[in-house]
Amino acid sequence: MEREDLGEILLVEDTAPNSGGEMENRIYHKKNEEVIPSKNRHSNPSRFWLALIIFLLVSLLACQFTQKAATPVIEAPVTLAPDIQEPPTATATEENLQATQWAEQTAQAPATQTQQAREAEATQFVIKLTEDAIAEATKAFYAPVLNELPNYGVDSNSGHVAWVHNPASASADGYHASDIVNDYGDLSVKDFLLAADINWDTQYGISGCGFTFRSDGNQQVFNQYMVVFTRSTDGHIFFNTLFNGKLANFKDFYANIIDPDLDWENGASNRMAILVRGNSVKIFTNQKFIGEVNLTDPPPQNPTLPVKPVKPQPPADDLTGKELQEAKKAYQTAMEQYKQDLEAYTQQVAKLETEHSTILNAYRQMGGVVYEEGFVGLLAYAASGYSNCQFNNAWLWVFD
């Protein structure tokens, strides 16, 4: 039997048989020489666990203070996180459990907040790096556009790049056939600069490639403007206005006179551009200014007619013999060609006059309307035959 002296009270522990004949532990309180049986310690566990919790709590707090004292760390005052609250009032056991949890949360709060601050700082750093990388990539991507703007007298602070187009192709085949492409066809613009490298392959000279702009998007009956670059006469440019699908105005330019670099041969590439601001449309080939259209100007009252064939002259009167015979033969051949050319000329003039009359009627129906805004497109146009157009390095600058 073991004894433990607790002052006036002695705890006596021994073993004795129970009612079933098995041996069990017993604890006795002995006071004033009187021994009184006590309950088994496991029959009332609350006191045991309460003592254990208090012991652990005291040990934990002692370790915390010891650790801080051993390794001093200077930190800013810490405000308890919102989710850490004062321990609520409860029973003795619950108070100690909640006190332990509260103490652990209080100890962990500075470390948690410091970690969260570091994570937030790291996140902001990564975001800043990403934004800088995107800005640099965007700047490099748009650099060719910004470098080209001064060639058209445009300030880089006057607007923004609306799009840079992927390489695209358009093909038209037939009488007054057209094909329009644009991966950004849902963008409606007013004032802009549109440029592209155009490679052409056309069957006839008056077919070509170019741009449409300020279009209402109705592909059945177009209301839009067009600029068509053609191979005719070594580089002929047409400006057209379409009203309800009909030609209502036009103007043409002979670019080869101004731009010696213009290559009109099939398979050639030229840099084409139009600068549209308000009622002004400026046309460029290979970054050279060709001419300007005022959208309020009416069409010319008379059509532009081709040069009339010149009638050949008969042989000179002083020719004789063999020379005269050869001259007469050449004259007859020239006259036959002249008659064919004159017939073609007469037919072409009649056609042009009829078309011009139709243009004037459409213009009157249009009533002087100026299209102020609309869609842009990359255009292949065939007056007859076919027209195949390849567009590279195309971009759209929009004025703010």
Question: What this model shows, in words?
Answer:
There is one protein chain. It is elongated and about 145 Å long. It folds into two domains: 2-113, no CATH class; 158-296 and 368-399, Exo-inulinase, domain 1 (Jelly Rolls, Sandwich). The chain has helices at residues 45-70, 92-148, 255-258, 321-366, and strands at residues 2-6, 9-17, 23-31, 34-38, 159-164, 168-173, 177-181, 188-189, 192-202, 208-215, 224-230, 236-243, 246-254, 269-277, 280-285, 288-294, 374-382, 386-399. The protein contains four helices and 18 strands. The model is unreliable at 1-13, 25-46 and 64-87 (pLDDT under 50). Strand 14 and strand 15 (280-285) form a beta hairpin. Helix 1 crosses helix 2 (92-148). Strands 5, 6, 9, 14, 15, 16 and 18 form a seven-stranded antiparallel beta sheet that branches. Strands 7, 8, 10, 11, 12, 13 and 17 form a seven-stranded antiparallel beta sheet that branches. The chain has a four-stranded antiparallel beta sheet with strand order 1-2-3-4, with no helix packed on it. It is of the alpha+beta class and 400 residues long.
β-strand amount: 25-35%
| Oligomerization category of the chains in this entry | single chain
CATH superfamily of the largest domain: Exo-inulinase, domain 1
Mean of the pLDDT scores?
80
Describe the biggest sheet?
7 strands, antiparallel
Rg, nearest Å: 49 Å
Spell out the key features of this protein:
400 residues, alpha+beta, Jelly Rolls, seven-stranded antiparallel sheet, 4 helices, elongated
